[in-house]
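Hi there,

I know you've been waiting on this one. I reran it after we fixed the sequence typo, so this is the corrected version. Both the input and the resulting structure follow.
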Amino acid sequence: MPAPAETILILGGTAEANALVSRLCANAPAPRIVLSLAGRTARPILPAGCEIRIGGFGGADGLAAFLREAGVSWLVDATHPFAAGISRNAARAAALAGVRRIAFVRPAWDKQADDKWIDVDCLGSARDALPVGARPFLALGRQHLAAFAHRPDLTPVVRMIDPPEPPLAFAAEIVLGRPSSDAETEAALLRRLGVTHLVCRNSGGATSYAKVAAARRLGLPVVMIARPPAPPPPLAGSLDAVLALLGIAA
């Protein structure tokens, strides 16, 4: 168990990062925990029992400086599997500051027998895989939509937690709210909106899988974007594995 004086910086923004904070806080005495968020969501879901830091660090060098100044002893990269740039900076910063690092990488989703996946390797390929006149549900996040501005024949649906500011660069129906964890609720939404395709990234995890299960129920094609390469080791595929590497009993 880490000594009380130890500080763990968690790069978060995921459900697993919040769950990790809760599990760490359940230990007595709990270490000092700092949860870092990028700040893209106006009203993020925040766990109790930790310090919150919002905003970037200024690249790998800025993060390394923070690690030194804050006396961080462990850096846990629990960011989204597609946040490759942040993960690269985390690995470099930890090396520069001489801080121990763990990268949590949740397992990817596996294609099931009834899935109609169209596997692609990038956003541009996902855009080009859609047939003329499709009505895709773009489950991608605001910062990953620009490629679809080049397909004026599409009538896309975009789900966002916050209203887009500035407005999107292309016409789309916007659904505000967080994804449901219930496949039938997601299926009802896709059915009501007249969606023909689901476009998403292979994020893995249980929290956002309902939309994929919903597409399977409705027989909809899913344009599935493959993950970027995993960050360098040490890697952990579960929160139990993260705790073990931290020296904490699960």
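Quick highlight: The chain has a mean pLDDT of 93.

Best,
R. S.
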